[in-house]
Design goal:
With 350 residues, the protein is α/β, with parallel strands linked by helices. Helix content is 43%, strand content 17%. It has twelve helices and twelve strands. The strands form three sheets. A seven-stranded parallel β-sheet has the order 3-2-1-4-5-6-10, with helices on both faces. Strand 5, helix 5 and strand 6 form a beta-alpha-beta unit. Helix 6 packs parallel to helix 8 and helix 8 (255-270) packs across helix 10. Bound molecules: nicotinamide-adenine-dinucleotide (NAD) and thymidine-5'-diphosphate (TYD).
């Protein structure tokens, strides 16, 4: 039996990773450490929470007492670290929360792993889940490879870049076994509706304006969240110590084209006249420092570890819409209370 610490497992991507590992590897004991911020939700894990190889711990990755205690208690063989503040817009209004969790929290985990494993690092692994946003913004051409120089431009990406540097520093300085992956934008079920796709689905359903920043010309490279979870599985088990892997599926869309496609799917699913949902598209003030384009070159992961995405975008988007429409209760719970004041500040008062 191996014991793995997964951080941020109650969030969007983390819940998919926890579900995959708990069900695929009954011989692993998965300990999910999550402080349950606004983005963490135990409803995301209802279907697996009673499985015998799963344990939830409510706690903060920045806690310098709790984290070493957990390493001592559970004797982790590996860590998959996803806990983070993850939303660019929130990082613009509150950068320090991002420094605290993403930089200090990651370093606190690294240090606990180093101290717990220092006498025998064999078979241990600290896997840090990161983002393509650390590479900055592309022009109309080119791709991010593992060799692209870091050029983070938002407080979110600066904090993630810093955490990546700390992970590499622990590898070089202390010999901590590590891997890092940098993934493109994810979409799928259980994503908090502050991010573009679930926010648009929620607003279209409720006949509210769909806010598009600037002219909608920014490009993102979208990957189905389950494909990201599969890639994490492959990299955790087969990735090389000290290496970085970019994860993406060559799926670039301008925001406006993506939203137009989403509107078509929503018209069909909601029995509306073609074109009805698109009338809700509303161009609003651009995000400060809005990165123009992200695009991943996933050749290394595909050629070295044999991972490739499983889903075409249109199919994935349809599945995603269906999930949100079938899970109105989930949406009602996460959009009650605090979400309303966030929405008011972000979209109504600015
Ligand atoms: P999310 O915001 O949905 O979830 C983050 C989770 O971390 C939540 O459950 C939250 O409660 C928890 N958390 C936050 N601060 C914590 C703390 N101090 N201690 C313990 N738990 C804490 O984020 P996500 O979209 O699932 O992203 C997960 C990871 O993947 C992040 O590291 C993010 O940078 C990375 N990533 C995300 C994307 C994307 O498109 N969403 C793409 C590439 C990489
Ligand atoms: P987001 O989902 O916040 O992811 P990221 O900023 O990490 O890429 O945003 C995706 C794109 O959609 C990004 O170019 C910003 C844009 N966007 C809007 O146009 N309107 C919105 O309301 C949001 C949340 C994002």
């Amino acid at each position: 039996m191996k014991t793995l610490l997964i951080t941020g497992g109650a969030g969007f991507i983390g819940s998919h990773v926890v579900r995959l590992f708990v069900t695929k590897y009954p011989e692993y004991h998965i300990v999910n450490l999550d402080v349950l911020t606004y983005a963490g939700n135990l409803e995301n894990l209802r279907d697996i929470e009673k499985l015998p190889n799963y344990t939830f711990v409510k706690g903060d990755i920045t806690d310098e007492v709790l984290v070493p205690e957990l390493f001592a208690k559970y004797q982790f063989d590996g860590v998959i670290h996803l806990a983070a503040e993850s939303h660019v817009d929130r990082s613009i209004t509150d950068p320090f929360a991002f420094v605290r969790t993403n930089v200090f929290g990651t370093t606190n985990l690294l240090n606990a792993a180093k101290n717990a494993w220092k006498d025998n690092m064999k078979g241990k692994l600290f896997y840090h889940v990161s983002t393509d946003e650390v590479y900055g913004s592309l022009g109309d051409t080119g791709f991010f490879t593992e060799e692209t120089a870091y050029d983070p431009r938002s407080p979110y990406s600066a904090a993630k870049a810093s955490s990546d540097h700390f992970v590499r520093a622990y590898y070089h300085t202390y010999g901590l076994p590590i891997v890092i992956s940098n993934c493109s934008n994810n979409y799928g079920s259980h994503q908090f509706p502050e991010k573009l796709i679930p926010l648009a689905i929620h607003n279209i359903k409720n006949n509210k304006p769909i806010p598009i920043y600037g002219k909608g010309e920014n490009v993102r490279d979208w990957l189905w969240v389950n494909d990201h979870a599969q890639a994490i599985d492959v990299i955790y088990h087969n990735g090389k110590n000290g290496e970085t892997y970019n994860i993406g599926g060559h799926n670039e869309w301008t925001n406006i084209d993506l939203i137009r496609m989403l509107c078509k799917i929503m018209d069909k699913k909601l029995g509306r006249q073609p074109g009805e949902s698109a009338k809700l598209i509303t161009f609003v003030k651009d995000r400060a420092g809005h990165d123009l384009r992200y695009a991943i070159d996933p050749t290394k992961l595909s050629e070295e570890l044999g991972w490739n995405p499983s889903l075409q975008f249109e199919e994935g988007l349809e599945k995603t819409v269906t999930w949100y429409l079938d899970n109105q209760e989930w949406m009602d719970h996460v959009t009650s209370g605090q979400y309303q004041s966030y929405y008011q500040k972000q979209y109504v008062e600015r």
